[in-house]
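Q: what does this look like with D-glutamic acid bound?
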Amino acid sequence: MPAEPSSLNASVASVGVQSRAPVGIFDSGLGGLSVLRAVRAQLPDEALLYLADSLYAPYGERDDDFIADRTLAIGEWLVKQGAKALIVACNTATAQSIALVREKLPIPLVGVEPGIKPAALQSKTRVAGVLATQVTLRSARFQALLERYAADCRFLCQPGHGLVQAVERCDVGSPELRALLRDYVQPMLDAGADTLVLGCTHYPFLDAAIRDIVGDRLALIDTSVAIARQLERVLEQHGMRAAPQTAGAAPPRFCSTGDGAHLRQIVATLLQIDADVERVVIPSPRTAALSSQPA
Ligand code: DGL
């Protein structure tokens, strides 16, 4: 479920938004590519700029201030690169820092949040599992979402320790990963769940492995298509849609704060794009403090 769009802030006009400017999409690592894939399908004329903060992934085991620090620094970097709008394609960063970043950036933002609402609407047994990072699950934003929909539906919340790390290694089906997934979903099945919310943008890459374990006993809720539609509404609302082009937009630009090798590999497999990945340096107060610590 996408988070609420920002209202257009007066400074958007002053940055001279061009409809051909790219939409920035950011995640701690590779997970946001599941959102990028949906955005490309929904809005083929939009230029896209993807940033993976792989040097500092996973965010789900970081402290709140670190996540806010990185999200803001990356948002500012994307604005400097000319982004006209930003998808924070990371549940963890959205849960932790979207309100702060929305206040500070002069462009509209779309965040992501676990699909609690669609799960509550469609679960027949009224028991649903939620897999998300520890930071997302403990955030006030997620707790408020849960309270809104948990009146007549029981949500079994499971932190997905180790799953983001596996996807970052391009492991989407090793025996160790499958064993981990089984540990997480079996208790949900035992408790009668019929729905599983994939509350982290990395997890749609694990859908085949999850399917192998749960068969059709759990409906998987992935909100990437809803996020793409939300972006479309936000761009429309702000008069920022790219003009239709006969050949569609150029391939996305891919950037990483890490070496980019896994990003390149997953882009080739998932999107069938043979892309160069630019390695970029995005300093932020917390990472500057890290690098000045004695080894
Ligand atoms: N894709 C991010 C999310 O949706 C993963 C966070 C992490 O790096 O732990 O939460």
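The pocket of D-glutamic acid is lined by residues 27-29, 31, 57-60, 90-92, 133, 136, 164, 200-202 (CB under 6 Å). The chain has a mean pLDDT of 92.
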